[in-house]
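Design request, tokens follow.
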């Protein structure tokens, strides 16, 4: 894989709190990567490091082969869209777009105009008078129309309605297909974007739990239902991530290991676990039982906690 950005053994401390602890990963060039994790996991912090908004307490961050901090050459090729983006008080929508057009060499004015129409945004309206969702739409337009070689969306759609979100996904995919670039997107709406993702990074309490291609995630875990003792017998050859039981009957999320039993053989009903369920189960799994503890030969690349 060619990396647009690399993060090597990065720790980020805020006085007493360690937001990222020894994180190493690469952001694949010309791919869409999802950055997932619970509140406070460290997603925004990682994006701030990648965009030169912060320098790590230790470790090294490189984007396009150089450190991003105060590096105009890197930052000109980077567009960072964050939730609740603020603009100067007097700015109208068109001022924000005009400002962005000056910043980004690859700016596509036609795409910006088409997106204004999609999101029904009045170009002449003062930004401070926009609704929350409309404000998010301004950021999304800038992020897409910038055509920046490295575009980061940090939970870009606060308040955006479901129709607008789907317009965003559609536009993102269509434009990315024509103009491949490196896109990193953090979101809590995992199922909505699961199909867009080519790579998945899952952070939990400042550590990477999952760093893999999305294809490997699909089919890597099953959700099984049945008598608890059968679930335990089945899970013995795999990784039990999460188990709910009621009166002896259970529902479990199990990461598959090669060589383990089939759910059928154990008399269990099984269905593939979707990305969102897997993220929930991995984030909730205690280190002693969580799949992330195990190094394995499975398709998933796991990082020890
Ligand atoms: N400037 C700061 N000073 C002190 N602590 C901070 C600072 N910025 C972030 N943190 C802490 O670092 C941790 C990671 O925060 P971060 O914003 O990266 O999480 P996140 O994964 O983006 O969360 P969310 O999904 O809620 O946006 C949190 O515990 C947060 O309180």
């Amino acid at each position: 894989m060619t990396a647009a950005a690399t993060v090597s053994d990065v720790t980020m401390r805020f006085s007493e709190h360690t937001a990222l602890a020894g994180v190493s990963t690469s952001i694949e060039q010309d791919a869409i990567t999802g950055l997932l994790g619970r509140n406070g996991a460290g997603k925004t912090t990682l994006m701030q490091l990648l965009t030169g908004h912060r320098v790590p307490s230790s470790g090294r961050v490189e984007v396009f082969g150089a450190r991003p901090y105060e590096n105009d050459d890197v930052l000109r090729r980077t567009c960072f869209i964050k939730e609740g983006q603020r603009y100067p008080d007097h700015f109208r929508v068109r001022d924000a777009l005009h400002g962005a057009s000056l910043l980004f060499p690859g700016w596509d004015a036609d795409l910006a105009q088409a997106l204004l129409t999609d999101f029904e945004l009045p170009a002449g309206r003062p930004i401070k008078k926009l609704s929350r969702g409309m404000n998010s739409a301004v950021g999304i337009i800038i992020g897409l129309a910038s055509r920046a070689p490295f575009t980061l969306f940090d939970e870009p759609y606060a308040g955006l309605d479901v129709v607008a979100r789907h317009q965003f996904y559609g536009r993102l995919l269509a434009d990315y297909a024509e103009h491949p670039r490196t896109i990193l997107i953090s979101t809590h709406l995992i199922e909505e974007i699961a199909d867009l993702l080519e790579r998945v990074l899952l952070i939990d309490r400042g550590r990477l739990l999952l760093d893999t291609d999305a294809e490997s995630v699909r089919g890597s875990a099953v959700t099984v239902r049945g008598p608890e003792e059968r679930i335990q017998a089945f899970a013995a050859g795999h990784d039990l991530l999460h188990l709910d039981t009621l009166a002896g009957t259970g529902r479990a999320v199990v990461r598959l290991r090669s060589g383990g039993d089939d759910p059928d053989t154990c008399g269990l009903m099984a269905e593939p676990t979707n990305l969102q369920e897997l993220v929930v189960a991995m984030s909730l799994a205690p280190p002693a039982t969580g799949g992330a503890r195990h190094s394995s030969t499975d398709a998933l690349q796991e990082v020890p906690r």
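Comment from the thread starter after seeing the answer: thanks! The CA atoms of residues 198 and 215 lie 7 Å apart.
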